[in-house]
Specification:
Layout lengths: L40 H10 L3 H7 L19 H12 L1 H24 L6 E2 L2 E2 L6 H21 L5 E5 L15 H4 L7 E4 L5 H9 L3 E5 L8 H8 L2 E3 L7 H18 L6 E3 L10 E2 L13 E7 L14 H10 L5 E5 L7 H5 L1 H15 L3 E2 L4 H11 L15
Parallel strand pairs: 3-10, 4-7, 4-9, 5-6, 5-7, 8-11
Antiparallel strand pairs: 1-2, 9-10
Helix pairs in contact: 3-10, 4-5, 4-8, 5-7
Family: Belongs to the 1-acyl-sn-glycerol-3-phosphate acyltransferase family.
InterPro entries: LPCAT1-like, Plipid/glycerol_acylTrfase
Pathway: Lipid metabolism
Length: 401
Amino acid sequence: MESELQKLPQPETTRPSQPESIDEGSTKDDRPLLKPDPTNPQLQVQSQSSSPSIEELEKKYAPYVRHDVYGIMGQGELPWTEKVLLGIALVTLVPMRVIGATTVLVVYYLICKICTAFWAPNREDEQEDFAHTGGWRRTVMMQSGMFLSRVMLFVFGFYWIQETYQPINLNGNSNNEDGSKQQAEELERPGAIVSNHISYLDILYHMSCSFPSFVAKRSVAKLPLVGLISKCLGCVYVQRESKSPDFKGVSGVVNERIREAHQNKSAPIMLLFPEGTTTNGDFLLPFKSGAFLSGAPVQPVILRYPYQRLSPAWDSISGARHVILLLCQFVNYVEATWLPVYYPSQQEKDDPRLYAENVRRLMAHEGNLLLSDIGLAEKRVYHAALNGNNSMPTVFHQKDD
C-alpha cells in the first residue's frame, strides 16, 4: 500500500498477537487482582526470594505504571499539602458530586423508562434490541443521553473538553492512496469508532458526543438503573469469562452492527476499544481485529487526560479508590483528537490484522503514543506482582481473553 502509513515507524514486536474476534467495550477487567496465598508459607518465602524490583516491574509493564502523586496503585505516601486538599474535598466536593451524579443517573433512567414503556422491542440472543428503536423514542433517548453524559462529566470536574478535528484531505482518500477519490468524497459515515482506552470515563465522553453502542459484559444488563440505560444504548453483551459458542455469535452481531451503521445513517454507530483493556494513556497496545473484520471504514479517536495530581487513567488502581480520588480532584481535563475517517484499501479489507495494525500505527503517530506489544494477560501479571504474588502458573493461559 502506497500511503502515508509507509512513513510511520514500524512497531517492534517480540511475539505474535493472539487471535481475537471481538473488541472489549467494558472498562473493567473481570478477574480481580491476584493476591498472595497467606496459608502457604513456602510460597511466601519463594515469592520474597524471587520478587522483582519495582524498577524492573515498571520497565517491563510500562503501559500500566502510574506516574501521579498518589504512586503505585494509588497507595503512595502523600505530602501533607495533598492530605489537606483530600480532607477538604472529602467533606465538600465528594458529597455534592455523589448527589449530582446520582441525580443525573436517575433522571436518565426515568427518561429511558418512559421511552420504553408499553413497547416490546425485538429480541436478539435473549436481550431486548433497543438499538433499533426509532421515531421520537430514539430521538429523546439519544439527545437527552448526550446532554446528560456531558452533565455527568461536568459533575466529575471536566468543566472544559478540548476537541481537535483533523481536516480531511480532499485530494484523495484521507488515509491511503489505494482508495479512490470518490470514496473520499462520500458521506463520512464510519461503521465504528475505534478509540484508545484509558479510563471508564472514555465511555462518558463518547456518549456525550456521538451516543454509540458498545460491547459490555452480560452482567451489566442486570444492574439497577445502568442495565436499562445500557440496553437503550444498544449494547452488545458478551460473557467474557465464558468460552461458550455464543462467543462467535457476539462477534457476528458486532460486525452486522458495524456494517449497518456504515450503510444506514439512522443506525447507531459502534464504539470499540481494540486494545481490550486500559493503559496509563502513554502507550497503545496491540489491536484486536474484531472492529476491522467487516472491512467498513472506522473513525479513529485519540483520548488524553492531562493531570497534575491524580491521573484519571484506570491502569493499576482499584475501582473504588480511583473513583473516590477522582471525585476529590477539583478540576479534571480530557483532550480528544478526531482523525479523518479511515477508509481501508482492498488489501486491508482482505486482511483485518493488517487493517488493525495500520490504524494502530496511524493513531500512535498522530497521538505521539508509544507502541507496546503486551496486553491484558501481562496486566494481570503486573497486578499480581504488585500484590506480592509471583507464582502464577495459570496467568499466561488466559491470553486468549
